[in-house]
Amino acid sequence: MPTVVIADDSPTLRRIVTSVLSKEGYEVVVAEDGVEAVQAVFRTMPDACVFDVQMPRVSGYVAARVVKDDWQTADIPIILLTSLDAASDRYWGKQVGADRYLSKDFEAPELAEAVAEVLAEKAKARGGAPNLKADPTELSADDVLQRVCDILDRKLFETSVQAEVIQLAGDALSFEATIEELLKQLQRFVDYDLCGVLIPEERVAYVGVAHETAVSHYDEFLDSAAANLAEATGIPLPAEMLDARVADPDGLLDEDDDSTPMATYLSMPLRGRGGKVVGLLALSSATKNAFGEAALSTLKLIATPAAVVIASARSSQLV
């Protein structure tokens, strides 16, 4: 028997939803607000959820975000049930990960059909595999609120990083100065020895040096970046064909071959409109495993706005 968690601060709505779903053969677990909703989800690991949007303590939007943010519960389908039915409300419901959005003037068959649909979609996505569930977890109210705070902190960081990068698109800078500023911005968010932006249209590699680095490390970095750019664009472009422009005002490139070689390398295509590769972002470090989960997540945040900045700067240069 599939289990459905329903959360609504209205006793009347809870009774209605419970009655509808119970008649359809679902086991119903009831919560009265957003905090209880999250607790119920982690305690029971249900097959689906039906959340009201406007609830005390934590809204349905936030409860859905918390559920979708954890790998153990991310695949549980969520239906948002609310009297808020503006286009912006439906948009935000999709942004927080909701699978369906129903207004509170629903007919009983609509709700039953919505639950059946999300369960069927989940089963189809599994491709016939069994519905494996994580072990139940007991969360206190403080645990739930801490998860909410963690998400808010992360979203604020993400928004701030993206805003600072995209701001470069509005600055009246030359193309080369824009790329140099982009490299400086990246140094604020990720610790690296070398960072480069390769532009296939220009056949140029802009490289910033952040720490003392062996020339052999630099050569290996540029070779790897050129190979990755060729792979991303399908156009052979060896390092020797690139016009490498190195920003090294402090003379940190070291000719000593005994210096520490490259130990960690990471690259990411920068895709503009239509998925076209407008550049390649590459970083390296002499430290092993230098770029962990946090660095990778930050670079993913930066990739799209960086592509916008590069495309905008290049268009301005061509005018």
Features:
single chain; 319 residues; Rossmann fold; five-stranded mixed sheet; 9 helices; 46% helix; elongated
Notes on the structure:
- There is one protein chain.
- With 319 residues, the chain is an alpha/beta fold.
- Helices cover 46% and strands 19% of the residues.
- The strands form three sheets. A five-stranded parallel sheet has the order 2-1-3-4-5, with helices on both faces. Strands 9-7-6-12-11 form a five-stranded mixed sheet, sandwiched between helices. Strands 8-10 form a two-stranded parallel ribbon.
- Helix 7 (175-189) packs antiparallel against helix 9.
- 35% of the residues are buried.
Rg (CA only): 25 Å
The CATH C-level name of the largest domain is: Alpha Beta
* Relative helix content: 40-55%
Oligomeric state of the chains in view: single chain
Number of strands: 12
Distance from N terminus to C terminus (CA atoms, Å) equals 65 Å
The parts where pLDDT drops under 50 for at least 5 residues are none
Largest sheet properties? 5 strands, parallel
The average pLDDT is 86
- How large is the share of residues in beta strands? 15-25%
Question: What strand order characterises the main sheet?
Answer: 2-1-3-4-5
Overall shape:
elongated
Number of helices: 9
Task: Provide the number of structural domains.
Answer: 2
The CATH architecture classification of the largest domain is 2-Layer Sandwich
- Series of secondary-structure elements, N-terminal to C-terminal: EHEHEHEHEHHHEEEHEEEEH
- Per CATH, what is the topology of the largest domain? Beta-Lactamase
